[in-house]
Amino acid sequence: MRLRLAKLEGLRVWNEDGSSCGRVFELRIDAKPGRQRDGVVPEIELLLCGKSGLLERLGWKQRSLFAIPWEHVLRVSGRGVTLRKGPPSYPIVKA
């Protein structure tokens, strides 16, 4: 699948059942040797997503984000990212 990584940031994240999991805040990429011009093929490993309130947006409180493996992404569309499985079972990381 070809995808512009910049388009993912800020997209809404949903479970298959339609419940909201927040938004994409960050991507974790692994650059592997491949057939690109510079010899590196970036591969998405994790989506860091979650909900952000006013205190987090102002920087007064640290965000807690879910680390979702890319394999759990069912589809990406203009509406957002749909997951196979909801974030409560994913590890929480501090951003």
State which percent range the strand residues make up.
Answer: over 45%
Largest sheet: 7 strands, mixed
Please report the distance between the alpha carbons of the first and last residues. 27 Å
Helix and strand content put the structural class at: mainly beta
Q: List unreliable stretches of 5+ residues.
A: none
CATH class: Mainly Beta
Q: If classified by CATH, what would the architecture be?
A: Roll
- CATH homologous superfamily classification: PRC-barrel domain
Arithmetic mean of pLDDT: 78
Shape: globular
Percent of residues in helical segments? Answer: under 10%
Give me the CATH fold name: SH3 type barrels
SSE pattern, N- to C-terminal: EEEHEEEE
Strand order of the largest sheet: 5-6-1-2-3-4-7
Please, how many helices?
A: 1
Instruction: Please give the domain count.
Output: 1
Characterize the structure shown.
- The protein has 95 residues and is mainly beta.
- The chain has a single domain, classed as PRC-barrel domain (SH3 type barrels, Roll).
- The protein is 5% helix and 47% strand.
- It is built from one helix and seven strands, in the order E-E-E-H-E-E-E-E.
- A seven-stranded mixed sheet has the order 5-6-1-2-3-4-7, with no helix packed on it.
- A hairpin with a 6-residue loop joins strand 2 (20-33) and strand 3 (40-50).
- It is globular, with a radius of gyration of 14 Å.
- The mean pLDDT is 78.
